[in-house]
Amino acid sequence: MQSVTNAQKAQILMNALPYIKKYSGKIVVVKYGGNAMVNESLKRAVMGDIVLLNLIGIKVVLVHGGGPHIKEVLDRVGIESKFIDGLRVTDAETMKIVQMVLAGQVNKDLVSLIGSMGGNAIGLCGLDDRMIRVRKQSDDLGFVGKITSLDVEIIQDNLDKGYIPVIATIGTDKNGQAYNINADTAAAEIAGALNAECMVSMTNIDGVLRDKDDPSSLITDLTLAQADELKKEGVIAGGMIPKVQCCIDAIQAGVKKVFIVNGMVPHAILIELLTEEGLGTMFVNKYSEGR
Amino acid sequence: MQSVTNAQKAQILMNALPYIKKYSGKIVVVKYGGNAMVNESLKRAVMGDIVLLNLIGIKVVLVHGGGPHIKEVLDRVGIESKFIDGLRVTDAETMKIVQMVLAGQVNKDLVSLIGSMGGNAIGLCGLDDRMIRVRKQSDDLGFVGKITSLDVEIIQDNLDKGYIPVIATIGTDKNGQAYNINADTAAAEIAGALNAECMVSMTNIDGVLRDKDDPSSLITDLTLAQADELKKEGVIAGGMIPKVQCCIDAIQAGVKKVFIVNGMVPHAILIELLTEEGLGTMFVNKYSEGR
Amino acid sequence: MQSVTNAQKAQILMNALPYIKKYSGKIVVVKYGGNAMVNESLKRAVMGDIVLLNLIGIKVVLVHGGGPHIKEVLDRVGIESKFIDGLRVTDAETMKIVQMVLAGQVNKDLVSLIGSMGGNAIGLCGLDDRMIRVRKQSDDLGFVGKITSLDVEIIQDNLDKGYIPVIATIGTDKNGQAYNINADTAAAEIAGALNAECMVSMTNIDGVLRDKDDPSSLITDLTLAQADELKKEGVIAGGMIPKVQCCIDAIQAGVKKVFIVNGMVPHAILIELLTEEGLGTMFVNKYSEGR
Amino acid sequence: MQSVTNAQKAQILMNALPYIKKYSGKIVVVKYGGNAMVNESLKRAVMGDIVLLNLIGIKVVLVHGGGPHIKEVLDRVGIESKFIDGLRVTDAETMKIVQMVLAGQVNKDLVSLIGSMGGNAIGLCGLDDRMIRVRKQSDDLGFVGKITSLDVEIIQDNLDKGYIPVIATIGTDKNGQAYNINADTAAAEIAGALNAECMVSMTNIDGVLRDKDDPSSLITDLTLAQADELKKEGVIAGGMIPKVQCCIDAIQAGVKKVFIVNGMVPHAILIELLTEEGLGTMFVNKYSEGR
Amino acid sequence: MQSVTNAQKAQILMNALPYIKKYSGKIVVVKYGGNAMVNESLKRAVMGDIVLLNLIGIKVVLVHGGGPHIKEVLDRVGIESKFIDGLRVTDAETMKIVQMVLAGQVNKDLVSLIGSMGGNAIGLCGLDDRMIRVRKQSDDLGFVGKITSLDVEIIQDNLDKGYIPVIATIGTDKNGQAYNINADTAAAEIAGALNAECMVSMTNIDGVLRDKDDPSSLITDLTLAQADELKKEGVIAGGMIPKVQCCIDAIQAGVKKVFIVNGMVPHAILIELLTEEGLGTMFVNKYSEGR
Amino acid sequence: MQSVTNAQKAQILMNALPYIKKYSGKIVVVKYGGNAMVNESLKRAVMGDIVLLNLIGIKVVLVHGGGPHIKEVLDRVGIESKFIDGLRVTDAETMKIVQMVLAGQVNKDLVSLIGSMGGNAIGLCGLDDRMIRVRKQSDDLGFVGKITSLDVEIIQDNLDKGYIPVIATIGTDKNGQAYNINADTAAAEIAGALNAECMVSMTNIDGVLRDKDDPSSLITDLTLAQADELKKEGVIAGGMIPKVQCCIDAIQAGVKKVFIVNGMVPHAILIELLTEEGLGTMFVNKYSEGR
């Protein structure tokens, strides 16, 4: 870092000014998952970014999954993971583990890490205040839920008090039974219900690439119509489809902008939100305002 | 219930009036543990009591432990429980399980049960907003913490918004490392920090008995001085000592009244707080006001 | 009461929970008159009910008449009561007595009784803040007023501050002249203007009976359409008509539910509002929700 | 009025400016009684003054008695008035009349008059919210009360909402029994409890006169010490003593200034408070600030 | 003043009551210019009026120009004034002087004078919070601006805090360049944006005269339609046109009433707003309410 | 800037985090004068820094002088500047120019510049709300004032509403006469009255140098005791004395930290407040916390 002069440092802070101004007082939802979650050093960087955004007046909500952690505990207690169309078959026994790991381990560990960096985090899941209400998605899948309604008042209340809500994506039916739900979908719906200014989806891809083997073919901006076109053309295909779909869902739920960024890039959130460069692909409804 | 007339029902509601008046707008901390936690029907009754108290304007905070649940999971993953002087030796591996079970399973299950009965609960632990700060109690015990400071602002904020905070007793050091802490002690300190009007400690005893084999020898009221005397006399002895000590701690931390009630009596909280009878033993600093 | 066990007491309190939840924070107008007003023991029971409702977070407004008390003072000062179609002919002299008795005696006595039971009541009449504006109903009747407009802000302000408003039904014209007004009509209009959740009309009948001599023929629920039908059939007839009309007026003014209960039943309000039984006849606009 | 030019009118309004500034947002208690209460034209002038003060941002509280009105009704129902040392012997029967007349007639008539002049008045008595608590003064006098405590929160709440509280001086014991109390004393204590900026006592004298037969001997300012001296000298004597005592009581209860003015002078309050002249005698604790 | 009795003084204060009531809590914009601004004694009278209005609860905003003061300084530094169609040609040099004089001298002198009379004034111009946004009116005129948008939040915020905003009419473009703007137009637009209850335009004429040489031919009320008619008839002509136009603009911008008064009459504002007489010509949209 | 990588940018933003946290919600007073004020590019940089600090939640107050601008206008109108002990002799004529230039030109130009960069500034001087009250310092100096009292409520009110107050240092006596006051002293007293977290004094020196000709001899931290010592040693001498004295005054008035920075360094404020380096000399009362 010695090569950066004080003048450059000041200039970088100054350059962040219009972005800070744009997001100040607004809600930003960060969907956090994948490898950035497993690598301890990256995890610290992500939490640091969130604390910084919170400090400069942005209302950050962190929504996380935790597949690898769940698998680890299930393995340990000897429950075999079964999947149908990529969705985990979740019997009562499994659901109990899923809840423990997501709401008790992953969630509170993130809260604790944010706390140790000076942020004031609060760890919630869809069971708190019955925030995420679901119904059974299909009998085959067991306790896998499809969101029927969201009540984000408990998030809003804690945002208003200055806390950083960290949300484990577990749902509940009216009897209080817990359900496993898709974290991407949940993040998109929460961001929509909160009228978030933007959502940042941290994945393991650089964004939408015209040629998936060529990083330089990154598409930096997409309207919903253009995304649709790219799906038809087969550019958005395979494993990229659910990642893009989650972004489209969020835009359709009312979020103004959604960014796919690569969680393996340290401080990807800060770079995307507070510098002129940006990193990944931005989704908007229609072209109306700059990045 | 058919034998109770409408007139009697109305009279019972009327009789609750002075007690509702006394506790309305005040904070009541319920320490919940033991068998009342394992029996599903009793658990429903306790949560129902809490929802009712909340509805009639009392600010209820539920502090819980979860020893049997922890043991169950530890057994399942093949970690052997070791104890020194009744305290669980907690290595990093064990602590991870303790956190998952307390903050992810027991805590959120209680939140969910309250929710299904119409209450608005929020599940927190000492990691949230770094509420419970601890230091290592002794090197032998591993991650067993002794509370060094409490910041109950996150509880107060959520009480003010009308939520029922449900607290899992896990602590954190300044690095964000989680610690196992004694639930009784934590409840007493939280109640003190909140200036609670009273604490109800749900145990498996009827209260302080002059003759431990004679339920009719229940002592209904004790000042701190009298409790001290009874310890010297050997009336308070054995397993009763830590239960009584927790009550004394709470009084000394500034709680006005502390009740030991038997969690096996359905609706023990309601009977203790809202009827003229009362059930167990009440601790006060000095005699000054009626039950 | 010795035959009611602690468990039963707790159960009764628990059973009240959904009703408390339903009415909490809502406005309930109680129209109070007739014999329940003269019998001291019943009066205490009614005021006790009101204090309890207030304590558990229900905003209660008590609207009262006071015919027998007026008659007593008029007799005493030697003014003869004349009636045209059941309405008291009210000359200036009489009006002065009516105002004194309603606003100075009956009203403040109720306030005082509520106060002695721990409630915070405030005694108002339609002259306060010119709350109830009237015009002369007919020249023959003298100072008998018909409500032209209502400004319930003074009631709302005092409800917001936690007081129990007790309202004597006297109106004023723009010159400040006081008028005698029908208490039933005033209660219905006040309840409407306050968007009350419900009105309880305490009368000397059990409700609407299909056969007026058979208490078991009580009709427990009536929509406006059904009430209309019963009037045509002659089931609602005679002295019951004005009592029913007041309920219909309140529903039409926007009150969600109106109950006729028999004021001679001790704690009729509590039984009607907080138990599953109910007592009298409930009027609703259309069938939409349970009691 | 034709002789007053526009320029003079503007000048008079301007001259009121420092006085408006002095009292703006402050509490002024007006003690109202005697002949100014019986003469309809004077009564209108007094209520007009109060409405004006309220409009220009002064918080006015009107405390009134009503001896002549009570006497009139007692005569009419044939109850003979008895007095011991100038205090009315008040049996239960009499008290009932006193309450009716003060709280129902005089109080609400004043409220109504203020209302007809555009003010927002609320009529209260010591029974409302148990504002004025008393004990029996002596057994001989029956229900004549001596104030033991005051809770002026209900006055403060309604002042805050912009209403003009009009207070009938009736007290209550803990059982809710009403008591007759001295209006002068009550006004002084209410003014003290409200930390009033000043109290204006409307009487039938011009103020303290050095020679009671010479109006030009008016003493315009008195400290408590000077008043004491004048009592010793016999200048303050006879019927003037209780009038002066009430002023002294108010000063000792914390009111900054107390004015005795002659209620027979139209608009005496406005002249005293808003013009440089002043009218009667001003009492202060010590000399510290100008009129 | 000796000829005005106390009774007359009180009566004048009382007569002001309905007017105080009408304007209390409302916004009154005073457009201040011309000779009343140069004459020190008149200036004190105007500021005194404003302080009084503020004290009695009216929210006053003072908008001023300052032509003569600008001319004086321009002369002194040797800049020649040029005008096109009555508008000052404003080059960069001139604009610098205009800003200094209006925002630094005239504005702050008025603020200071109000302060010395006990009012709490705050001096603002269109540059503060970029309140008045303009574009160049024509290239010939240099920095003469035409208002494109107004953001009166800074005025509202300071009114809410009890200050008297004093506004110098300077505008800004998006680069922060200052512009000279017409004070009459600015006052009208500010009054409209604030939803002012009324605007008082202090000029050097008595109002609209049917015969400009006959003061007794004053027209006291005009609707917009009538004013239009008078323009066609040639009654409103010459120098009177822009003065009338400003009033019409204000009415069309939503101000309820606009008064033209002669600033040479001492306390013209008080006489116009707080006495039954009135002075000049009142403009309204349509006839709907009295003066 | 191309040599700074995204990772470095993010790191610089992250490094600012603890400093943002330290100052967030706190008041920072910037004393702005000297050459940094004349150089347009530096002026933009300073205003940009202030807008950034405001955006990230720091409450910034800008206090400015304007000696060179005053001199320019005085020269232009042919008023000769006279000084006694470095203080400008200020006759009435001169004072008028000083006020115009400071409050009308320099102040509003800064406001306008902040506005054009996206900040919400409000330009005030000591005449507004009579914020800075002074008495004549000495007869020889004319209208040069010494501060007798400060009422910073108007600054606080506008900070609370989110504005950036820009303060021209002019004072007023009780008659509303304007006075010229020392900007350094005024800034120190304003910072003290606001309980500012820190004051940044922008000067034309690098800080306190042990050897005034050797920039590397900069002393980075000084307690008041150490500063005292350096004065005795003659290290702080000559023109440095008043600059240091202003810092000492501010510390003594209760400001926690005061920084002298060189206004010629672009973004000196950001570098001093938001980076680990710092630039100039920091004054504290005693050593207690880090930079």
Order of helices and strands of chain A: HEHEHEEHEEEHEEEHEEHHEHE
- What is the count of helical runs of chain A? 9
Q: Return the average pLDDT of chain A rounded to an integer.
A: 91
Pair with the biggest interface: A-B, 40 and 40 residues
CATH topological fold name of the domain at 23-75 and 107-119 and 157-169 and 181-284 in chain A:
Carbamate kinase
Let me know the largest β-sheet of chain A: 8 strands, mixed
Poorly predicted runs of 5 or more residues of chain A: none
What is the number of strand segments of chain A?
14
EC number (chains A, B, C, D, E, F): 2.7.2.8
Keywords (chains A, B, C, D, E, F): Amino-acid biosynthesis, Arginine biosynthesis, ATP-binding, Cytoplasm, Kinase, Nucleotide-binding, Transferase
GO molecular function (chains A, B, C, D, E, F): acetylglutamate kinase activity; ATP binding
GO cellular component, one term (chains A, B, C, D, E, F): cytoplasm
Description of the molecule:
The structure is a homohexamer of 291-residue chains. Chain A is of the alpha/beta class. Chain A has a domain at 23-75 and 107-119 and 157-169 and 181-284: Acetylglutamate kinase-like (Carbamate kinase, 3-Layer(aba) Sandwich), CATH 3.40.1160.10. Chain A is built from nine helices and 14 strands. The first copy, chain A, is globular, with a radius of gyration of 19 Å. The longest helix of chain A is centred in the middle third of the chain and has 25 residues, at 92-116. The model of chain A has no long low-confidence stretch (mean pLDDT 91). In chain A, a hairpin with a 2-residue loop joins strand 3 and strand 4 (87-88). Chain A starts with 5 loop residues before the first helix and ends in a 7-residue tail after the last strand. Chain A has an eight-stranded mixed sheet, with helices on both faces. A two-stranded antiparallel sheet of chain A has the order 3-4. Helices cover 41% and strands 21% of the residues of chain A. Chain A has helices at residues 6-23, 40-55, 67-77, 92-116, 153-160, 183-193, 224-233, 240-252, 268-274; strands at residues 27-32, 59-64, 83-84, 87-88, 121-125, 132-136, 145-150, 164-168, 170-172, 178-180, 198-203, 221-223, 257-262, 281-284. In chain A, helix 3 (67-77) crosses helix 4 (92-116). The A-B interface holds A 73, 76-77, 96, 99-105, 107-108, 111-113, 115-116, 120-125, 127-130, 154, 157-158, 161, 163, 170, 172, 174-178 and B 73, 76-77, 96, 99-105, 107-108, 111-113, 115-116, 120-125, 127-130, 154, 157-158, 161, 163, 170, 172, 174-178. Chains A, B, C, D, E, F: Substrate binds at residues 66-67, 88, 180. Chains A, B, C, D, E, F: Catalyzes the ATP-dependent phosphorylation of N-acetyl-L-glutamate. Chains A, B, C, D, E, F: It holds the Pfam family AA_kinase.
